[in-house]
């Protein structure tokens, strides 16, 4: 049971009111007001127009595609992100710093550059596409590849500090009790890095949902097949159909908010037991 | 199970942390590895556990050479200074861990595991805490859980690395008594590492004093306390007054302090003398010629005894003297008073040259 107590404790550094006020103002300006405009705009159009825009089969196909590919890319990044974080914290090897730096590259690179590069590499005559028996560019698989690229740093950077702070003695305790290395990882290490990995997954997933620049080149943008939701928004904008664009945006916003909420609740439920006392 | 440690050496790079360590532990003994930090005691414990490998030498359990055996196969219970509990598991699952990771064919049934964990919980007097997480326990409780977890696999040997090092004085004392009691009831061969001589002397059957990667002395607490083998041990186990002087003609001389040194009849060398605080006689009037003038600086009654700090009149070094209250009031001593000290018992070591 949580009892909210009024804290009358004097703080070492004062200024709670000021900093909270500034944070609220800043968040309102940067996040809340722009997002609320979405709702205001879409509210103007009336229910009927809203539903017909939002439930247009072509648009629905784009939501499905966006969520499917983002989820898949997030899962791949979850697995390989933990692996990379593990290698980077556990072992020392030449050029480790450089490889560690590579992880951030998808952040730094303009996404359109990444998109063009990936499209070229994975197209039927590309260096990698040539070797594969199936087509990657201009398919949902290609979109997933681009999203994996974009979301790579999140899980790695979330999990790395947790692994770094992990007490070596805890592993030794597990081994001394007769556990195999795999059991130690599965029962002791993994459960403790899961909250961080989930955070990384949530971030990568959210980023993927909104990703546009790197995807439009590799997707080929075929209606019902490889059109992602952000592309639909841009298409509507190009047709000066602002209300339809906002309506789709609102749906995306609500859906991703719901998904992030689920992940956060999962994380809270999981971490509440031991993470902080 | 007996443990033989045969000529074990270990280096980290160019630094030799263990130098040819050699001793045997009998079945059922409780041994304290005592030494200052950096003396190699923890490394030795970790080598016995199999957490580290010795560069040279053997570890033999009950006549079986396990030098290269994996920690899994050694059947040792290891207790860490900072508990190393699994934060993601309840107390119950922490204790059950060693049983739950057994291969299916050796693993006890759920019911047996539950019974065993409950027995261990009552042994560590934490029956109502099975469902809590480690972060909800105090330090002393966590260390007891760590002990129960180690005991759950029914180890043949229990190894404890500064088990009470991170706890406050009162809890430490409690756990120490409890460990002694536990050892008497379970009877498992145990080694624990500590830098606290009081802890070692109070709990252990035998004490192994280590310094600089070597064993300085092995013996029962009484023996080590009454007959320290060398000046290091005198210094380390503490509370002895130290005199630095010369040995010549069967006498030890340090300033005005002079005493017989019959162990060194003919030699002329540097020497160290150690006198315990309760081996002094205080006199108001000088008697005999082997006495030392000193001024009382501070009087501190502690329970049934009185501690005195005195300043030597010749070297101005401080001396610590203890006497019982009756003697103190009979002598009627006061601060800033000049008195004469005689020693009842002194241990002289020659330091060469």
Automatic annotation (TrEMBL), chain A:
Where do the TM regions start and end? 12-41, 61-89, 101-122, 134-156, 188-206, 242-266
Keyword Membrane annotated: yes
Cross-referenced SUPFAM superfamilies? MetI-like
User: How does the protein associate with the membrane?
Assistant: Multi-pass membrane protein
List the Gene Ontology MF annotations in alphabetical order.
Answer: ABC-type sulfate transporter activity
Assembly behavior: The complex is composed of two ATP-binding proteins (CysA), two transmembrane proteins (CysT and CysW) and a solute-binding protein (CysP).
Q: Name one Pfam family in it.
A: BPD_transp_1
Question: Where, per UniProt, does this protein localize?
Answer: Membrane
Sequence similarity: Belongs to the binding-protein-dependent transport system permease family. CysTW subfamily.
Q: Which organism is it from?
A: Sporolactobacillus putidus
Keywords associated with the record: Membrane, Sulfate transport, Transmembrane, Transmembrane helix, Transport
According to its UniProt entry, the function of this protein is described as:
Part of the ABC transporter complex CysAWTP (TC 3.A.1.6.1) involved in sulfate/thiosulfate import. Probably responsible for the translocation of the substrate across the membrane.
**Record-linked PROSITE patterns:** ABC_TM1 (PS50928)
**Entry's InterPro entries?**
CysT_permease, MetI-like, MetI-like_sf, Sulph_transpt2
**Domain (ABC transmembrane type-1): residue spans on this chain:** 63-263
This protein's GO cellular component annotations are: plasma membrane
Full protein name:
Sulfate transport system permease protein CysT
From TrEMBL, chain B:
Q: What residues does the ABC transporter domain cover?
A: 3-237
Q: Which Gene3D superfamilies match?
A: P-loop containing nucleotide triphosphate hydrolases
SMART domains in UniProt: AAA
Q: What are the record's GO terms for cellular component?
A: ATP-binding cassette (ABC) transporter complex
Q: Is the ATP-binding keyword given for this protein?
A: yes
Q: Give a GO molecular function annotation for the protein.
A: ATP hydrolysis activity
InterPro entries, sorted: AAA+_ATPase (IPR003593), ABC_SmlMolc_Importer (IPR050093), ABC_transporter-like_ATP-bd (IPR003439), ABC_transporter-like_CS (IPR017871), Mo/tungstate-bd_C_term_dom (IPR008995), P-loop_NTPase (IPR027417), Sulph_transpt1 (IPR005666), TOBE-like (IPR024765)
Query: What does the UniProt keyword field contain?
Result: ATP-binding, Cell membrane, Membrane, Nucleotide-binding, Sulfate transport, Translocase, Transport
Q: What domain of life is recorded for the organism? A: Bacteria
Among Pfam families, the record links this protein to: ABC_tran, TOBE_3
Under which name does UniProt file this protein?
Sulfate/thiosulfate import ATP-binding protein CysA
